[in-house]
Amino acid sequence: MTQTVNIMCIKWGTLFGPEYVNRLYSGVRRNISRPVRFICMTEHGEGLHPDIEVIDLPNEPYAEPMNAALAVANRQGAMRKTSLFRKGLIPDLEGPVLGFDLDVVITGNLDDIHDLAPGTVAMRHDWTEKRKGRPTGHGSVFRFDPAEHGFLYDELAQNPYAEVEQARGSEQRYTSHKAMDRGVFTYIPEDWVVSFKYDCNPFPTNYLRAPRLPDDARVVCFHGRPKMTDAIDGWTGSVIRYSKPCGWLRDHWIDRARADLGDKWA
Length: 266
Hints:
The protein is an alpha/beta fold.
């Protein structure tokens, strides 16, 4: 029997509309070889495709001291994703989870990322942290197993202010360093998870050519600016981050999702 792949994302607040979740769902199911169970944790489930399983965004018992520490770090809300790590969050869920932020576009096969180094927490090396010689993982794509890595939730819940303070308000620093400390961390190969601004559209060649999609890119991260909605038709919001119109982005993020799910959902 083919094992179902667990996919999770979190949508809190109203910055991202339901189409971001629906297009992510379409991108995942079109690029993985096994059945998909797609779960979105949110307080705004309206507009999501009916095949997406919605669970409520919890009010964590440690939220008050966590948010107080995040306010000092000026990173309000940055740790909400840790709610996904709680063991037993979804009682009938079995096996690892592949998680995504909503500002990513799926462009290639995801099987290798899902299956990479079982039993470990997998994240790509963060671009800026690597440049500075630090080991921190990047949080846009992450693979974990709630049954094995519940410590990512438990240790924050036990001492929220100190953990947030130590991580300087960064969820990806908290998650990757906690896993590294326990010897259960794996880097996702850098060619598989790429940055739009660093890998697809770097300065100064962004003035000479349209953004390119690297050959082995499975996920493109739109961290910072421009976001996907900026980059499709071209963006002039920053001298360094200037972008010409991007045809492959429209194709992977919108056109293929609409062909898959229909205009109503994508």
